[in-house]
Amino acid sequence: MSASFEDIIAQVKALPTKTLSICVAQDENVLKAAQQAQARGVANPVLFGDEDKIRAIASECSIDLTNMKIVDEKDDEQAALKAVKMVHDGEADMYMKGELPTKSFLKSVLNKEVGLRTGKTLSHVCIFEIPKYKRLLFLTDVAFLPYPTLEEKEQIINYTVKVANACGVENPKVAPLAAVEVVNPKMPVTVEAAQLTQWNEEGRITGCIVDGPLSMDLALEPEAAQHKPGALDRKIVGDADILLFPDIHAGNLVYKTIVHMVDHVENGNILMGTKAPVVLTSRSDSVEVKVNSIAVAAVVAENLKKNPW
């Protein structure tokens, strides 16, 4: 079972080399990530954007572009459409955001002619490697769906299970989170969590173990179960692989707390529900986060060939 991003990168190196299409690539961290991804055997990048700006940044930052293809397109929206079309046409395996506003990037993802839309719900998955937690931790949704419905939560689980499987985690444990671990009709989140658990028990949701509603402490800390009646009999006792958040506020707050308050943490991000994996990171994300995200996209791309949506 993968416990680190180095494990995922090792998986990638055993696969046929993936092609990564990057739109509006004239960004220092994006180019550094592209260089590292290529040097480490994670992916072969194709850079779409203003070639003059790309080469100027590369020269200033000592980034080697020798073996990277550059498609010169000064107009950002056209660069995005050309980049996503490469993935749409099967000439690239993954699509990545460069120096482009998220709204414009998603517009290209959802373009009817050349985009990657499938008609399914889109959702965002974040993968964390936390030193104290001896396994990869998958968080969803922390950046895309504001208030997922029950059916959307079901779809989010299915997506995230596929990401976990691709990263080497079989039969992941999914914790639909709430403030409490008992069903309370006055707290709809707990009712929906219980419904998701029932669907898992009935075989409607497969490939994982769902146990909810579950409080955050019971999901992540085995010690906490020692102090709550009946907690030791739960399917998840401090060993969750996937945290399913009730809404984007809870997910985003936890995500940013981990990023900014936990030492030596690593993470990667991917958008799911598209025809091919989409690397959607923030412009402020580090080079390491971008490389980790590319590596996750690479193993997911391989997995989707065998097990499509």
Account of the protein in words:
With 309 residues, the protein is an alpha/beta fold. The protein has 2 domains: 5-118 and 274-306, Rossmann fold; 123-261, Isopropylmalate Dehydrogenase. It has 11 helices and 11 strands. Strands 8-7-9-6-5-10 form a 6-stranded mixed β-sheet, with helices on both faces. A 5-stranded parallel β-sheet has the order 3-2-1-4-11, sandwiched between helices. β7, α7 (188-202) and β8 (209-210) form a beta-alpha-beta unit. α6 (150-166) crosses α11 (287-306). It is elongated, with a radius of gyration of 20 Å. It starts with a helix and ends with a helix. The mean pLDDT is 95.
Shape: elongated
CATH topology of the largest domain, by name, is Rossmann fold
Task: List the helices and strands in order.
Answer: HEHEHEHEHEEHEHEHHEHEEH
Portion of residues within helices = 40-55%
Task: Supply the number of helical segments.
Answer: 11
Average predicted local confidence, pLDDT: 95
Total strands: the figure is 11
Q: Can you tell me the number of structural domains?
A: 2
Radius of gyration: 20 Å
Main β-sheet description: 6 strands, mixed
CATH architecture type of the largest domain: 3-Layer(aba) Sandwich
| Proportion of residues in β-strands | 15-25%
Please identify the top-level CATH class of the largest domain. Alpha Beta
